Amino acid sequence: MTAATHSTLFPQVPETADAVLDGLDPEQREVATALNGPVCVLAGAGTGKTRAITHRIAYGVRAGILQPSSVLAVTFTNRAAGEMRGRLRQLGAGGVQARTFHSAALRQLQYFWPKAVGGELPRLVERKVQLVAEAGARCRIRLDRNELRDATGEIEWAKVTQTVAADYPAAAAKLHRDAPRDPAEIAQIYAMYEQLKQDRGVIDFEDVLLLTVGVLQDRHDIADQIRRQYQHFVVDEYQDVSPLQQRLLELWLGERDNLCVVGDASQTIYSFTGATPDHLLNFRTRHPGATVVKLVRDYRSTPQVVHLANGLLGQASGRAAEHRLELVSQREAGPEPVYTEYGDEPAEAEGVARRIRDLIASGVSAGQIAVLYRINAQSEIYEQALADAGVAYQLRGAERFFERPEVREAGIALRGAARAGGNDSLLDDAVDLPSQVRAVLGTKGWTAVAPAGSGAVRDKWESLAALVRLAEDYERAKPGATLSDLVAELDERAAAQHAPTVEGVTLASLHAAKGLEWDAVFLVGLTEGMMPITYAKTDEQVEEERRLLYVGVTRARVHLALSWSLSRSPGGRASRRASRFLNGLRPGSAGRARSVAGGAGGIERGPAARKRTRRGPVLCRVCGKTLTEAGEMKLMRCEDCPSDMDEALYERLRDWRSHQAKELGMPPYVIFTDKTLMAIAEAVPSSGHELAVISGVGARKLDRFGTDVLAICAGETPGGDAEVTS
């Protein structure tokens, strides 16, 4: 959740321009009032950079210094652009354009293409990877799924760095890029991909930037028209600018210098896509008279979290490290970061799930907790562990909330109900705004109880549930608001891409977590080979991995837990080591230069780390192979091995679970996940001991549900919640 949504959901618009400046600290105020000439804001994590630049734009607009239509604010994600538009709207500067580089360029290209080239703009390729696959086949180069994805990434990198196919092998060698195939083969595929696009008259997203640059370079009349439109530019996350984006920005600017850039070289984590902090670090060289403001007051994190973040960067090297910002926490002291070593990955996932359940029990909202990992493949075992612990979760994706089909359908239904008003029988029993929304969305798939498990059905329900919660918040903020008022609010939020939050613990990669924050963050899998990732070979690549961990640490407001496991699977050889980035920071590690602020701290040992002999390897009960994947370990067999599941028993168990969920008022998957029910239906346990050894049952669920489950397995009618003995 971002700072914007963490504060009041529906704040009052400031009455005057000066009121826009209220609440800003001295450095933020300096940013907000520096409205002429080049401005460079070096902003550390949690220092309120978005607040500073949105208040800067709003102050300029409200004071009459800037015309809303003359300002173009650009950033790197639709979410960030949407948040910026939402904040500007709340500050009374709703007419300002806040877009990503791509959306701003596409808008200009669509408008000027008939004049510059003639005809309609070529169609955008929706699925680039399919065209890359065809290009590979045409070159007689067979790519597996992972190679195909990585080859597509290499083509994207080449284009944003303005590297043509013929020059790719030399450029890749110079920069030590870890190409998925021989660079000469990638160059072949790249060239064929470009040929296929040309033959079919289509363009991709990188072409949008390239073509816009080409038009502005060749047609001075068009460039002048855009420069007359936009007089003032703001660029967020400037450390992530690619050479192509920088060239486009220069063409937008022309000879002018009304440019404000904001960034932090220590948060450069996208160099694999062509991003470079050089433009940020060289800004004062290109603009000698620039106003430079440093934001180092950290309002997000406790002194304990900030101390660890500073210590992590204190060991960094390279040019970005030379310009690092020493953060100063503005919050009261909090708990020490917790370091935990586990014997294996399942034990780590189970331990994290237990800690999360305890945090929720202590009053921390599930929506304010995140589990962050290096690669998406690590998510499954945490999904399973959280489900087994009865904790709701959500996987963070990049899809725009208001573009989800179920959200669009919900908007249409709510708009129709608002127009019908009292003539809609669906609303007869609805006494207030939230109950009206629940009644309407009940026809679209929303239910009072969440559906079982994960997947598309669960994702749809979460989207609709987020709309229900938004209606509840809106009612509290504006008592007496009507359904029409809410629809208008949704329309404004959709235009700004200001999405409501979805409840549940967030599971996300470290890259996907950039720009977000939570009360509690669990950084997991922190072993050598994963952090830094094994393919980080050069010093600069390793330093980028350190910066990625820094981003993860600085997502935490209060609670921070860091963990690693000594082996992948139970019973495996304990050959792993904790990440080198923790050396000198975690208690007892080599090179520890200073104590952790506020206390001695210490490394905890997870259960399997203390007693590694407790678990043996999990073997497939069909073929005997050692199992390593979470889902396979739950089923006690390889996914490909034949199942002997009793289908009728499985359906009876599902029916029982559904009934229990309604009785207890909880999501079905909190009782048992689908995989656990499948494992029970395959094993058909006849005793408490046989049921207890099935992954996902555990002592707590055995005591609560064991009698019923064993009765169903025996073909009997479940009779109650009596305790089960082995």
Shape: globular
Instruction: Tell me the fraction of residues in β-strands, as a range.
Output: 5-15%
Structural class comes to alpha/beta
Low-confidence blocks of residues: 1-8, 592-600, 610-615, 721-726
Largest sheet composition: 7 strands, parallel
Rg result: 28 Å
Mean pLDDT: 83
Number of strands: 17
Distance between the termini: 45 Å
Q: Which percent bin holds the helix content? A: 40-55%
Strand order of the largest sheet: 13-14-12-15-16-11-17
The oligomeric state is single chain
Number of helices: 31
Describe this structure in words.
With 726 residues, this protein is an alpha/beta fold. Helices cover 46% and strands 10% of the residues. It contains 31 helices and 17 strands. The strands form four sheets. A seven-stranded parallel sheet has the order 13-14-12-15-16-11-17. Strand 6 (232-235), helix 13 and strand 7 (259-263) form a beta-alpha-beta unit. Helix 5 packs across helix 23 (483-496), helix 11 (205-218) packs parallel to helix 13 (243-253) and helix 16 (303-314) packs antiparallel against helix 24. The model is unreliable at 1-8, 592-600, 610-615 and 721-726 (pLDDT under 50).
